[in-house]
Structures are given as structure tokens and as C-alpha cells.
Design a protein that fits this description.
By secondary structure, the protein is of the alpha+beta class. The protein folds into 3 domains: 3-38 and 74-141 and 321-338, 2-Layer Sandwich (Nucleotidyltransferase, domain 5); 151-185 and 258-317, Nucleotidyltransferase, domain 5; 187-255, ATPase, substrate binding domain, subdomain 4 (Actin, Chain A, domain 4). 39% of the residues lie in helices and 27% in strands. The protein has helices at residues 3-9, 54-57, 81-95, 116-128, 139-146, 187-202, 208-218, 249-272, 276-285, 299-307, 320-327, 332-338; strands at residues 14-18, 22-27, 31-37, 40-43, 49-52, 67-70, 73-74, 77-78, 105-110, 133-138, 157-162, 167-173, 176-183, 204-205, 229-236, 242-248, 287-290, 311-313. The chain has a 5-stranded mixed β-sheet, sandwiched between helices. It has a 5-stranded mixed β-sheet with strand order 13-12-11-17-18, with helices on both faces. The longest helix has 24 residues, at 249-272. The two termini are 26 Å apart. 48% of the residues are buried.
């Protein structure tokens, strides 16, 4: 027996949700063992990774000139091959308690409309980071499994997974995807839209972390009875000095209007293209939301109003994809049916 296969026998296989905003790693024995931002701080002089994950996020917008905080994933796929490899290697080692000799089998979830080149980049990165075998499954399928939808039955299941880089909408029946659409608009674009809106309206420049805090606190897709406000600190672009202002949830709804409309339109298109028999199932069972981006305040209500179909969140939407991917570690028969080439 080859040494690599002998080592993989003693390894603990991993499931990875390689997200644009967050990377989650799941092991069969311990569940979710890594839940960290997909960020690497790289020293541009030595080309070494100074920090990965949460430690690197702390450096966002605060690094000296020689250190750059990089998000190696963009729109759900690899934008920086070398940095992704380092990040994966770090998370694999962290999941295995820094054991350098482990070569696990890895199941990775990827967006539905990923290109062959992008698939190869994910697979190669995982192999070079220490995996012995790599399986890829679609994020929407993983989210549906994580949400406990009966995907192997002959009924229509509709899942909407809104992550950091992509929104994946899929209709699943008999362990197959009947219709799938992936749009590269999700949580990160919401952050950018808030930065641009505040810059345009108030001539105030805010950072990524501030924008994310505004999205979590005030972000909404449908009017609420009471107005919520928040103090925001940034740099005045006219006077060049720090400044504080108060913004409200109505302004943030306006900032996110275009992005929310795109997500709603993607869901409506999926409903229009679903075969009638499966549409009847979806009307009965409703649409299930997963992913961190789906937690945008009142998004479920907006989709309900626009489609006339019940909409609900799955349990713990943020970890649905990695939980679904993790279940494949113990169900090789189903994994072989749903894995993509």
C-alpha cells in the first residue's frame, strides 16, 4: 500500500465550505472545528503569511505598508491561487491539531455555475494544501442537505443560499438539481454598496469592518414599524478629518435596494423555470433560506410579498452549507451521486 493511502486511512476526513467571506471546516468526529474569515495577512517583503483568519481580519484597514490583508476568494471562487493554498493549509492543520502528517479526503462546496478552470483551481489548491482526495459538490445542494430537506425524494425542494460572494438558487428533486442559478451578488456586495452610498451621500469614507457592522445592525429588505439608527465613524473626504454621523435603516434599505432586487429576481426566474409538478410542491413546502446573507433583516418577508410563497430560514443558516457537506463524509453513496466532475 502506498504511503499516502496508508496515511489517509488514519486521517480524519474534512468537509470545507470555502466561502468568500468565511471558511468553515467540519470533521466527522467533532463537527465544525474552524469558523474563521477567509482573509490572509501577507508580508509583501518576505512573502510570508503573517496571520490567517480571525487574526488577519483584525488587521483589515490597519496594516503598515509592508503587510497586506488579502481576501483570496472572490465571488465564491479563487482569485489568488497561492494565498488560498496557504489559507487552506493553515485551516487543515488547525482542524487536525497542527498534525503535519495528516492527508485527509476533503469534500468542498462550490458555487453552481463554477467554470472548469475554477473547479480545477479549487481541486489543485486543496491537493497542494495536503488533501489525498478532493470531491466537489454544489453549494445549493450542500445547503439543502444541511437544511434537512428531503432531497432524495421525488418532490420539489427550493433552496436559496446567500453567502459572501454568491447567491445560489436551486430546485432539487431525486438527489439531482432540476434548476440552478448562481449570481455573483451577495453579502460582500452589500458591504460595498453601503460604503459607496455613504461616500456619495455624506462624503464620508468608511472601512469594510464598519460597513459590515452597519449591514448587521441596520441592513433590511422591507420596512419595519420602528426606525433604527446608528452612529458611524469615518473620514470626511472634503475636510480630511475624522467625523461621526447618524444614519438610519431606511437609508441602508435604499443603499441595498438594487442588490435585494437582483436576489428577488433570481428567485422569481427559478420559480418560472421550475416544472409545474415541482412548482406545486414548492407552493406547499415553501422556499428555504440559508447562508449568512439570508439573515438580512426582513428579506424573508420581502420574498414572501414578491412571490406569494411561504419563506423560512433553515436552522443556523450560516453553517448550513458546511453541515450538509459534512454529512457527505459518512454517506459515500450519496456523495458519488451528487459530486461534480
Amino acid at each position: 500500500m502506498a504511503l499516502s493511502s496508508l496515511l489517509s486511512l488514519f486521517s480524519s476526513d474534512l468537509a470545507v465550505d470555502l466561502g468568500t467571506a468565511t471558511c468553515l471546516v467540519y470533521t466527522r468526529s467533532r463537527g465544525i472545528v474552524v469558523f474563521e474569515p477567509s482573509i490572509v495577512a501577507v508580508n509583501r517583503v518576505t512573502n510570508r503569511a503573517e496571520a490567517v483568519g480571525a487574526a488577519a481580519k483584525e488587521m483589515l484597514g490597519k496594516t503598515p505598508g509592508n503587510i497586506q490583508a488579502i481576501r483570496p476568494m472572490k465571488d465564491g471562487v479563487i482569485a489568488d491561487f497561492e494565498v488560498t493554498e496557504r489559507m487552506l493549509e493553515y485551516f487543515i492543520r488547525k482542524a487536525h491539531g497542527r498534525n503535519l502528517f495528516v492527508r485527509p479526503r476533503i469534500v468542498i462546496s462550490v458555487p453552481s455555475e463554477i467554470t472548469p478552470v475554477e473547479k480545477r483551481a479549487v481541486r489543485d489548491s486543496a491537493l497542494r494544501a495536503g488533501a489525498s482526495e478532493v470531491y466537489l459538490i454544489e453549494q445549493a445542494m450542500a445547503a439543502a442537505i444541511g437544511a434537512d430537506l428531503p432531497i432524495t425524494e421525488p418532490t420539489g425542494n427550493m433552496i436559496v443560499d446567500i453567502g459572501g460572494g454568491t447567491t445560489d438558487v436551486a430546485v432539487i428533486s431525486l438527489a439531482g438539481i432540476v434548476y440552478a442559478r448562481s449570481v455573483r451578488i451577495a453579502g460582500n456586495e452589500m458591504d460595498d454598496a453601503i460604503i459607496n452610498y455613504i461616500k456619495r451621500k455624506y462624503n464620508l469614507l468608511i472601512g469594510e469592518r464598519t460597513s459590515e457592522a452597519i449591514k448587521i445592525e441596520l441592513g433590511n429588505a422591507w420596512p419595519s414599524p420602528e426606525t433604527r439608527t446608528m452612529e458611524v465613524k469615518g473620514r470626511d473626504l472634503v475636510e480630511g478629518i475624522p467625523k461621526t454621523l447618524t444614519i438610519n435603516d431606511e437609508e441602508i434599505r435604499e443603499a441595498l435596494a438594487e442588490i435585494v432586487s437582483t436576489i428577488v429576481d433570481t428567485v422569481r426566474t427559478a420559480l418560472e423555470r421550475t416544472p409545474p409538478e415541482l412548482s406545486a410542491d414548492i407552493i406547499d413546502k415553501g422556499i428555504v433560506l440559508a447562508g449568512g446573507g439570508s439573515l438580512l433583516h426582513n428579506l424573508d418577508q420581502r420574498l414572501r410579498e414578491e412571490t406569494g410563497i411561504p419563506v423560512s430560514h433553515c436552522e443556523d443558516p450560516v453553517s448550513a452549507v458546511v453541515r450538509g457537506t459534512g454529512r457527505m463524509l459518512t454517506d459515500m453513496a450519496l456523495l458519488k451521486r451528487i459530486a461534480i466532475d
